[in-house]
Each structure stands twice: as structure tokens, then as C-alpha cells.
Amino acid sequence: MKLSQTLYARAEKIWPRYLCHPFVTQMADGTLPPEKFRYYMLQDYLYLKDYVKIFAAIIQKADDFEQIRFLSGELADTIGETFRTHIPYMKRLGITEEEIHSTRPHMDNNAYTHYMLWEAQTGDVLTGLVTLLNCSWSYAYVAEKIVERCPDALRDKRYGSWFAGYVSESYRRTNQMLIDRIDALSGFIDEKTAEHLCEIFEKCCLFDLRFWDMVYAMGGN
Ligand SMILES: Cc1ncc(CO)c(N)n1
User: Which of 5, 8, 25, 123 is the most exposed place for a label (fewest CB within 10 A)?
Assistant: First the structure.
């Protein structure tokens, strides 16, 4: 069994909770209060800034150019995600540069990114990539499942482009390359290592759930 299949089996216990999270369901039916989305965009923008730096931390552990090229490609694609989704949204929402610079990450946001950075710094390339996986994979999952269930989500005037970004071919490709790389690197790991990686992944699943909770609770308050 591939490591990604084992990880998916773990995620199946948690990911369905994202699909019925009020932040997600209200984005899907267009009823999410804009202030909540605004808060989310700002926090998520800060989150992704840390996330790309974790790729940079992993690059320092890589010892061949092919690996470095892969990692820097994923890093660049994540920056692409912010240019495709966050920056246009922030413009539309009237968020200024000053506001971006004066926004502080919520402690749940910091807890998540600092945890990932710590695992990436103390572990090897595979550990680092598994740490980053839930972020990438769960968004592809959420967008795909929601759009399957309610295709109108894509046409919502406020939140349609959020779904469009995460069901896009380019996002799916970047995510699939990450999964494939993790499977390639984990061909010969022992049970104990596999279990350790599963625990990291599961923790990140819960951090993402907490992120949805946090932006839903904080936005507009
Ligand atoms: C909190 C969070 N998790 C995952 C993603 C997917 O990139 C994101 N943008 N933000």
C-alpha cells in the first residue's frame, strides 16, 4: 500500500468534518458573511507566506538538483495560489497594503505554521512534505466534493472564484505531484516511520479544522 493511501484512510475520519463546517457550507451556498471571508483571506495570506518558507526549509535538506527543482516548483506554485486567489480577492474586498502589514496572525494560525516548520526542520525531506500535505490535499478535496454536490458554488458571485481556484487543473496538478513525490520517497520506510508520518498528517488535519473554526469564530468580531 502506498503511504498516500494509508494517509487518506486517516484523513477520511476528519475531512468529512470540513465539508459540513459552517464556513465551508456557507461559502458554498453564498451565505457566508463577507466579514468572515475577509478575515479568512487575511489570515490565510499570512499562513501561505509561512507555508512557502517551509518549502524553503525543506530545500535545505535536499541534496540533488532534481529534488530542489521539484521543491522550488511547489514553492512557486504556492505563491501562484496567492496571486490567483488571495491577491485578487483582497483587491475586491478593499484590503490595503497597510492593512495586510498591520494584521497579526491569530495564535491558531501561528500554532499550525510553527508546528509544520518545526517538523520540517527536525525531519528529513519526506517528513517535511508530509507535514505540508494536508494543507494542499484537503483543499483540493473540499473544493472537489463541494462542487460535485453543489455545482452552483462555482457561480456564486462572492465565493465562486475560491472554489474555481481550488478545482483548477493547475492546483490539482501541483497537489498530485506532491502526493506522487511522497509515495516515491516512502517506498522503503519501516512501520515505525510510517506511523510517525501518519501522526504528523493527522495532527495537520486537525490544525486545518481548527483554522476553519478560528476564521469562522473570529471573522467580523
Ligand atoms: C489554512 C490553509 N490550509 C490549506 C490551504 C491550501 O493551500 C490554505 N490556503 N490554507
Answer: 5
Give the separation between CA 150 and CA 26, rounded to whole angstroms.
12
For the Cβ of 139 lying below 6 angstroms from any atom of ligand 1, the answer is: yes
Written as tens digits, the pLDDT of the chain (221 aa) is: 999 999 999 999 999 999 999 999 999 999 999 999 999 999 999 999 999 999 999 999 999 999 999 999 999 999 999 998 999 999 999 999 999 999 999 999 999 999 999 999 999 999 999 999 999 999 999 999 999 999 999 999 999 999 999 999 999 999 999 999 999 999 999 999 999 999 999 999 999 999 999 999 998 88
Q: Which of 46, 48, 108 maximizes ligand 1 atoms within 8 Å of its Cβ, making it the mutation to test the pocket? A: 48
Ligand 1 centroid to 135 CA: how many Å?
Answer: 5
Closest CA to 86 of 131, 37, 134: 37
**Is any ligand 1 atom within 6 A of the Cβ of residue 48?**
yes
Query: Which domains does the chain carry?
Result: 3-218 (1.20.910.10)
Residue 204 zone, left/alpha/beta (φ > 0; ψ -120 to 50; rest) = alpha
User: Which atom of ligand 1 lies at the shortest distance from residue 48's CA?
Assistant: 9
